[in-house]
Amino acid sequence: MSDIVLCKKQNPIILGIESSCDETAAAVICGRKILSDEIISSAEVQALYGGVVPEIASRAHTDAVDEVTARALKKAGIERGELDAVAVTYGAGLLGALLVGLSFAKGLAYGLGIPLIGVNHIRGHLAAAYLEDETLKPPFVTLLASGGHTAILHVKTETEFEALGGTLDDAAGEAFDKVARVLSLPYPGGPHVEALAREGKSSVSLPKMLKGEGGYIFSYSGLKTAVINYVHNKEQRGEEWSRADVAASFQSAALDILAEKAVEAAIERKVSTVTAGGGVIANGYLREKLSALCGAEGLKLVLPEKKHCTDNAAMIASEGLVRYRAGLFSPLSLNAEAYLPLL
Ligand SMILES: Nc1ncnc2c1ncn2[C@@H]1O[C@H](COP(=O)(O)OP(=O)(O)OP(=O)(O)O)[C@@H](O)[C@H]1O
Ligand SMILES: [Mg+2]
Questions:
Q1: Which residues belong to CATH 3.30.420.40 in the chain?
Q2: Does 138-308 carry CATH code 3.30.420.40?
Q3: By C-alpha distance, which of 289, 254, 14, 221 is closest to 130?
């Protein structure tokens, strides 16, 4: 970055690019205001295979990245020359998929002579809450629940986090996807399980996850196995069972504890605000539960809009803004990382 003379603005115009999995996304923000937010998804093709095929994802990103960026700039009414920085996911994710977005962003930043800001995808999920509330400021406690991660974090400043605990095995989203498969629902399973659960009652007895344990640890593998065993037993015995009741029972067993522990952490850490991020936070049952528990404890709750819970580029631009303000820019030699530490 030594060849770029930067005059930092308080409300820069930032282009965000996301390509870590099956969504090619681009968004433009000015300060915390979203000017555009575009996605081209290969999820429909991936659904044919019951999950994401990395090579198909990479090829789809290559086809889509230029178009989705052009759409985002057009919708925002912004010329490339007006951009102040390009923020891009560099990890974690599918290596080939990440490389497409990262290489594109590097070319753009280099060509325009503006900073490149490499963003950790998970930090992006957590920064989605900033787009929801102009006034949101740490300290707060945040609940992360996505396809690959489940954790509770104490956010001390915009760049300083402490992980209070997380899952010992599967992530919450992963558990939804696996249970969806057992219930013959399509991928990604979360929204389908939620829709089915609305038609059922939480009447199937499933193990509560590590409820009696202290701290902020979760485990989804026992719960998932209990659902699989329940369904297989019923089928082997030829007994009637309700898919909707299983969905509702799993949903409450999987999500109640997340909301309870997030609120417990906020009280323990003496913060007055709870936020959340990641695909599972799009779940209406969880949002209501968090809202009720926070309300009862007098805590402020800031949840990203549902479309900013699953992968999107506005959240990457939002974390880009945090890093821009902190002067945390990336060299053009930045590489894509399939694995990155949570924070
Ligand atoms: N309404 C919902 N209820 C429950 N889970 C949901 C809902 N909507 C999406 N999900 C789950 O969220 C996950 C996708 O979230 P996200 O896009 O954040 O994950 P990811 O990018 O694959 O993983 P990560 O962000 O951890 O790398 C999927 O597992 C999906 O089933
Ligand atoms: Mg994600």
A1: 13-128+310-325, 138-308
A2: yes
A3: 14
pLDDT at residue 51, as a whole number: 78
> Ligand 1: does its nearest atom lie under 6 Å from the Cβ of 115?
no
Q: Max alpha carbon distance in the chain (Å)?
A: 72
% the chain with pLDDT above 70: 97
Q: What ligand 1 atom has the least distance to the C-alpha of 23? A: 17
| Of 78, 84, 93, 61, nearest in space to 7 by CA | 84
Count CB-CB contacts under 10 A for residue 79.
Answer: 9
DSSP 3-state assignment of 142? Answer: strand
Using pLDDT thresholds of 50, 70 and 90, give the confidence band for residue 213.
low
Residues surrounding ion ligand 2 at CB below 5 Å: 146, 311
Q: Which ligand is nearest to the CA of 92?
A: 1
Full-model pTM? 0.95
22 lines ligand 1 (CB under 6 A): no
User: Closest ligand 1 atom, CA of 311?
Assistant: 17
Instruction: Give the model confidence (pLDDT) of 244-293 as tens digits.
Output: 999 999 999 999 999 999 999 999 999 999 999 999 999 999 999 999 99
Pocket test for ligand 1, best of 94, 310, 342 (most atoms within 8 A of CB): 310
Superfamily of domain 13-128+310-325: ATPase, nucleotide binding domain (3.30.420.40)
Q: Is the CB of residue 289 below 6 angstroms from any atom belonging to ligand 1?
A: no
Ligand 1, atom 30, lies closest to the CA of 190
**Ligand 1 binding pocket includes 200 (Cβ within 6 Å):** no
Structure tokens at 44: 């429909």
* DSSP conformational letter for 180: H
